Amino acid sequence: MKAQPKASHYINGRHVEDEQGPALPVTYPATGETIAMLHAATSNTVELAVEAARAAQPAWARLKPVERGRILRRAADLLRERNAELARLETLDTGKAIQETLVADAASAADALEYFGGAVAAFGGDYTDLGGPFAYTRREPLGVCVGIGAWNYPIQVAGWKSAPALAMGNAMVFKPSENTPLSALALAEIYTEAGLPDGIFNVVQGFGDVGAALASHEAVAKVSMTGSVPTGRKVLSLAGSLMKHATMELGGKSPLIVFDDADLENAVGGAMLGNFYSTGQVCSNGTRVFVQKGLHDRFVERLVERTKTIRIGDPLDPETQMGPLVSKAQHDKVLGYIAIGRDEGATLRHGGGVPSLQGFEGGCFVEPTIFTDVTDSMRIAREEIFGPVMTVLSFDDEDEVVTRANDTEFGLAAGVFTRDLPRAHRVVAELQAGTCWINAYNLTPVEVPFGGYKQSGIGRENALEALRHYSQVKSVYVETGDVASPY
Ligand code: NAD
């Protein structure tokens, strides 16, 4: 299996190789085989990319928003036309099941390009009547923006960052995760084909040092990063020391609260989606499932029954529902947490092991795992595992569960399952999380802002919020009379 791109980087509308850079091998997580060999960028390549973006951005910003939007919408159409091949590429790069990458990856990036391509033409400043004089505001682009991606949704992250940035008249240098470098290159080719001027979207590969070089580059006006909290802290301080704008989309340990009166099948389905989709590698996952005591035992019984039917295996088989984790390192980390959960005294109700799959012996597979009898202080209930490991906790009443749900440094997302809608709204209003779902979980349409409270991040992606975060406001005061000068 090979997925070798034409070159490692994409700068100024062209493929660029930089053989001086450290080797960056790409592995298929289902088998461990090397599918591509790339190079990380050297500082020369970083300079080339930033310079290309800097040079191209002013002319791009002078186009009418509707003209920029037209190019983005053309690129959205190309993403959708090539969805099948992009899904295959994403599956090879991440190991995620093809039945997921066909619907959740390039398709989600296309949604962002389409949405921002349309919305930007209606996004503008304000007018203020000052009783004769007046003022208006202009929403202006920031300049060169840097995007730094995580490995769980590579092309989606590239689309969610580049679409609002470009629509608003910025240029972008995007660095994918070193684990999943391939699909951002495909997106860059598609942008060029759709008519994007050279230099407006550039891709450079690399490890954390390349991300840091970009985040601290003096020609860069904004950094938008998706990744873990510890990395976010480093990137934010680099950006902050140079007064750059920043958006941080970071990790979580989100609560999913199931009250006694919830629809059992929907609540179980929501909890499974919010823990096992993408092999559990979703930032907003509801990994602390609080179930009220009256429903707890029936919930766990049905959860285990349904989890037993999950089909793990060949990610390219359309029947497969769960692929491997992204890398050996992530595999070790998740298995380590499962061992910690056992040691801490939680009950392992399902999974916990490595499935034996013929032909995939070198893969990073782990069974969907359910722990019950979990208490709030256990590490498996406090730390982000980023794998298919669900912890189930029980509770008595509403006030108690709200307090326990909020007792975390994270605040990315939360969910509530109940038939009592006044209670659902009351609870959601108390939850410290940037995105909350009522009787649903993990749906993130582009029309709705997405981002974290507390340590889970700052800024928002998606919706008009994202255009605000990729622009700055200029206030213009206009005098219509004489200048009232005392001198
Ligand atoms: P990570 O923090 O290890 O890496 C993220 C990116 O930052 C990578 O591209 C990496 O190369 C880069 N990086 C690392 N060190 C850097 C440095 N010092 N300076 C600049 N860049 C640096 O995260 P990951 O393991 O790739 O992704 C998993 C994490 O991402 C999880 O915590 C998950 O919750 C989070 N995530 C958040 C969202 C969200 O929208 N909130 C979405 C997906 C994933």
From TrEMBL:
<keyword id="KW-0479">Metal-binding</keyword>
<protein>
    <recommendedName>
        <fullName>Betaine aldehyde dehydrogenase</fullName>
        <ecNumber>1.2.1.8</ecNumber>
    </recommendedName>
</protein>
<feature type="binding site">
    <location>
        <position position="457"/>
    </location>
    <ligand>
        <name>K(+) 2</name>
    </ligand>
</feature>
<comment type="pathway">
    <text>Amine and polyamine biosynthesis; betaine biosynthesis via choline pathway; betaine from betaine aldehyde: step 1/1.</text>
</comment>
<feature type="active site" description="Charge relay system">
    <location>
        <position position="461"/>
    </location>
</feature>
<keyword id="KW-0520">NAD</keyword>
<keyword id="KW-0630">Potassium</keyword>
<dbReference type="InterPro" id="IPR029510">
    <property type="entry name" value="Ald_DH_CS_GLU"/>
</dbReference>
<dbReference type="InterPro" id="IPR016161">
    <property type="entry name" value="Ald_DH/histidinol_DH"/>
</dbReference>
<dbReference type="InterPro" id="IPR011264">
    <property type="entry name" value="BADH"/>
</dbReference>
<feature type="binding site">
    <location>
        <position position="93"/>
    </location>
    <ligand>
        <name>K(+) 1</name>
    </ligand>
</feature>
<dbReference type="Pfam" id="PF00171">
    <property type="entry name" value="Aldedh"/>
</dbReference>
<dbReference type="GO" id="GO:0008802">
    <property type="term" value="F:betaine-aldehyde dehydrogenase (NAD+) activity"/>
</dbReference>
<feature type="binding site" description="covalent">
    <location>
        <position position="283"/>
    </location>
    <ligand>
        <name>NAD(+)</name>
    </ligand>
</feature>
<keyword id="KW-0521">NADP</keyword>
<comment type="similarity">
    <text>Belongs to the aldehyde dehydrogenase family.</text>
</comment>
<keyword id="KW-0560">Oxidoreductase</keyword>
<keyword id="KW-0558">Oxidation</keyword>
<feature type="binding site">
    <location>
        <position position="384"/>
    </location>
    <ligand>
        <name>NAD(+)</name>
    </ligand>
</feature>
<feature type="binding site">
    <location>
        <position position="454"/>
    </location>
    <ligand>
        <name>K(+) 2</name>
    </ligand>
</feature>
<dbReference type="InterPro" id="IPR015590">
    <property type="entry name" value="Aldehyde_DH_dom"/>
</dbReference>
<feature type="region of interest" description="Disordered">
    <location>
        <begin position="1"/>
        <end position="22"/>
    </location>
</feature>
<dbReference type="GO" id="GO:0046872">
    <property type="term" value="F:metal ion binding"/>
</dbReference>
<feature type="domain" description="Aldehyde dehydrogenase">
    <location>
        <begin position="17"/>
        <end position="476"/>
    </location>
</feature>
<comment type="subunit">
    <text>Dimer of dimers.</text>
</comment>
<feature type="binding site">
    <location>
        <begin position="149"/>
        <end position="151"/>
    </location>
    <ligand>
        <name>NAD(+)</name>
    </ligand>
</feature>
<feature type="active site" description="Proton acceptor">
    <location>
        <position position="249"/>
    </location>
</feature>
<dbReference type="InterPro" id="IPR016162">
    <property type="entry name" value="Ald_DH_N"/>
</dbReference>
<dbReference type="GO" id="GO:0019285">
    <property type="term" value="P:glycine betaine biosynthetic process from choline"/>
</dbReference>
<dbReference type="InterPro" id="IPR016160">
    <property type="entry name" value="Ald_DH_CS_CYS"/>
</dbReference>
<feature type="active site">
    <location>
        <position position="249"/>
    </location>
</feature>
<feature type="active site" description="Charge relay system">
    <location>
        <position position="161"/>
    </location>
</feature>
<feature type="modified residue" description="Cysteine sulfenic acid (-SOH)">
    <location>
        <position position="283"/>
    </location>
</feature>
<comment type="function">
    <text>Involved in the biosynthesis of the osmoprotectant glycine betaine. Catalyzes the irreversible oxidation of betaine aldehyde to the corresponding acid.</text>
</comment>
<feature type="binding site">
    <location>
        <position position="251"/>
    </location>
    <ligand>
        <name>NAD(+)</name>
    </ligand>
</feature>
<feature type="binding site">
    <location>
        <begin position="175"/>
        <end position="178"/>
    </location>
    <ligand>
        <name>NAD(+)</name>
    </ligand>
</feature>
<feature type="active site" description="Nucleophile">
    <location>
        <position position="283"/>
    </location>
</feature>
<dbReference type="InterPro" id="IPR016163">
    <property type="entry name" value="Ald_DH_C"/>
</dbReference>
